[in-house]
Design goal:
alpha+beta, single chain, globular, Pnp Oxidase, Chain A
Length: 161
């Protein structure tokens, strides 16, 4: 995918969207030739995306680590802003791999702040970090490392006309 550089998000815009947007869509390879596309809550730390997942999403990543992420704002074409990342995902299989990850603690705190009160419960003060950890066979943290990132801010289209 090639977009004019003039409409790319600035590094600050990218960082702001990754830190403040609630949902990111992740596409993984499902059973057979199916693509599994799911909106997920996420953290952004160390240039990587962190999410807790369960079930089919974890199974899919174990079988094929290739995935694509999409985060976008607005619906009308002249207002669209987005980030698409072609990436590699990794399942943190147990507490030891969680503890060894250099950015998971930061992502846990960030998600605690971002989603404080998001499940309909009153917000807590201070926000509680997302302390999810490996459970059962398919409830895990997934760490996603972008390989190629494409961004756009259609507000900037006037610059190339």
């Amino acid at each position: 995918m090639s977009l004019p550089r003039e409409i790319a998000l600035s590094p600050d815009q990218l960082e702001d969207m990754m830190l403040t947007t609630w949902n990111i869509r992740i596409a993984t390879h499902g059973p057979g030739e199916h693509i599994n596309l799911t909106p997920m809550w996420f953290g952004w730390a160390g240039g990587k995306v962190y999410m807790t997942a369960r079930g089919q999403k974890v199974v899919n990543v174990r079988q094929n680590s290739n995935c694509t992420l999409l985060l976008d704002h607005n619906e009308k074409f002249p207002e669209l802003m987005g980030i698409m990342m072609r990436a590699t995902a990794k399942v943190l299989e147990n507490k030891a791999t969680e503890d060894a990850d250099p950015h998971l603690a930061e992502a846990r705190v960030q998600m605690g702040v971002k989603y404080n009160g998001g499940h309909g419960a009153p917000p807590t003060d201070p926000p509680v970090p997302n302390n999810s950890t490996a459970k059962g066979s398919n409830r895990r943290w997934i760490v996603i490392t972008p390989r190629k990132t494409v961004t756009w801010d259609n507000h900037k289209l006037d610059r190339i006309r």
